[in-house]
Amino acid sequence: MASSSSSILVFKLFLLLLFFTHFILSTATVDDLTIKTYIFRVDEDSKPSIFPSHYHWYTSSFADPIQILHVYDTVFHGFSATLTSIQATSILQHPSVLAAFEDRRRQLHTTRSPQFLGLRNQRGLWSESDYGSDVIVGVLDTGIWPERRSFSDLNLGPIPSKWKGVCETGFQFSSAHCNRKIVGARFFAKGHEAAGRSTGGMGGINQTVEFRSPRDADGHGTHTASTAAGDGVSSPYYLDPIAIGSYGAASRGVFVASSAGNDGPTGMSVTNLAPWLTTVGAGTIDRNFPSYVILGNGKKLSGVSLYSGLPLNGKMFPVVYPGKSGLLSASLCMENSLDPKLINGKIVICDRGSNPRVAKGLVVKKAGGVGMILANGASHGEGLVGDAHLIPACALGANEADSVKSYISSTLNPTATIVFRGTVVGIKPAPIIASFSARGPNGLTPEILKPDLMAPGVNILAAWTDAIGPTGLDSDNRKSEFNILSGTSMACPHISGAAALLKSAHPDWSPAAIRSAMMTSASNNNNLFESMTDESTGKPATPFDIGSGHVNLDLAMDPGLVYDIGSNDYVNFLCSINYDPKMIQVITRMPARCPARKALPENLNYPSISAVFPISSPRMQTKTFIRTVTNVGPLNSVYTSKIEVPKGASVTVIPSKLVFSSTVKKLSFAVTITASSKSLVMGDSGGAFGYLSWLDGRHVVRSPIAITLVDPL
Question: What span, in angstroms and rounded, lies between the C-alpha atoms of 192 and 143?
Answer without folding.
Answer: 15
